[in-house]
Amino acid sequence: MSADQVDYLLRLGDDALVAAQRLGEWYAGTPEMEQDVALANIALDQLGMARLLLTYAGELEGKGRDEDALAFLRDDREFRNCLLVELPNGDFAMTMAKLLFLSAYQRLLYDASIGVADERLAAMCAKARKESAYHLDNGAQWTIRLGDGTDESHRRMQAAVDELWPYTHELFASDELCQRLDEAGLAVNPATLRDGWLSTVEPVLAEATLERPADGWAPEGGRRGVHTEHLSYLLAEMQVLHRAHPGAKW
Amino acid sequence: MTGEQWPLWEVFVRPRRGLSHGHVGSLHAPDAAMALRNARDLYTRRQEGVSIWVVPAEQISASSPDEKDAFFDPAADKVYRYPTFYDVPEGAPHI
């Protein structure tokens, strides 16, 4: 069971870690300084949660790997994040759509995980749910403003929502590992979260005068380590320092 | 960013219950809702406050530095405006 738990913690932790790295790419590049600070704050929240989850995963695994070993010394096939977080940032609309979709999911997941039997995980989620609520608010506010803004911002926001929607299905895909942990009371089955997610996201899209895309193509594979080519490039940049100078410290 | 900049907002934060909101700085935001959120990120990251006000900077009327003398100097030589100017009469301890 603890091997299952390790795998599950990596899923959550890698989602947060890769999301943090992508948001960090925006630093000093957003349209306004204020938004720079907002995205950097969100990135740091995600990084903080990733550190807690990866540290815990390493301890449960019992092979002496700490958070740094897990973050910087695994290859792409060993990462368990969903495909959504590794996709390139695209334009600002794309980043906001991704923020909306991911944080709506994380908010529901962390909320529901407060009741799991794994007390350490439950405590982490209790802390992170307040942060996720703020991330969700930021993503929703911008989606509404850009969707219901100018013709150009509406066009870009709709294009972003259309492009990312297929990748949201993976967030709620259940597998045998999820079912085993769910039955043991150690984790929330993500399939149970989609209704809540839709009732969070759909009103935002409606207020933003955006069309809710039809469900169809549902790419997946991230939870098994089968990623898009984008993850390798992201990891190369994120890991290069640690791999070139193992154990480097500030 | 090219083109026009977002409007300027003045930010007031109340540090604790029972204290007044104090001016802490300013920021740019497209509207009031985003100004509040930006203020949260810029000015209350380290638990500095329990309440935030944002006000459009253009809505603030300020006294002019040119009028400083007329506005503030006359108060300098009127010591009788301070409570310490008066002697408390004997036998009236609760004044």
Describe this entry's structure for a reader.
The complex is a heterodimer of chains A (250) and B (95). Chain A has helices spanning 2-24, 33-61, 67-72, 83-86, 92-113, 119-147, 151-168, 176-183, 194-207, 230-244. Chain A has 250 residues and is mainly α. The relative contact order of chain A is 0.15. Chain B is of the alpha+beta class. Chain B has helices at 32-43, 68-72, and strands at residues 8-14, 22-28, 51-56. The mean pLDDT of chain B is 86. At the A-B interface, α2 and α6 of A face α1 of B.
User: What fraction of residues of chain B sit in β-strands?
Assistant: 15-25%
Number of helices of chain A: 10
Tell me the radius of gyration of chain A.
18 Å
Reading off the top of the CATH hierarchy, the class of chain A is best stated as Mainly Alpha
The number of distinct helices of chain B, counting runs of at least 4 residues, comes to 2
H/E series of chain B: EEHEH
Summarize the structure.
With 250 residues, chain A is an all-alpha fold.
List keywords for this structure.
heterodimer; A: 250 residues; mainly alpha; Ferritin; 10 helices; 0% strand; B: 95 residues; alpha+beta; 3-stranded antiparallel sheet; 3 strands; 18% helix; 21% strand; elongated
Walk me through the topology.
The complex is a heterodimer of chains A (250) and B (95).
Chain A: H1 2-24, H2 33-61, H3 67-72, H4 83-86, H5 92-113, H6 119-147, H7 151-168, H8 176-183, H9 194-207, H10 230-244
Chain B: E1 8-14, E2 22-28, H1 32-43, E3 51-56, H2 68-72
Antiparallel strand pairs in B: 1-2, 1-3
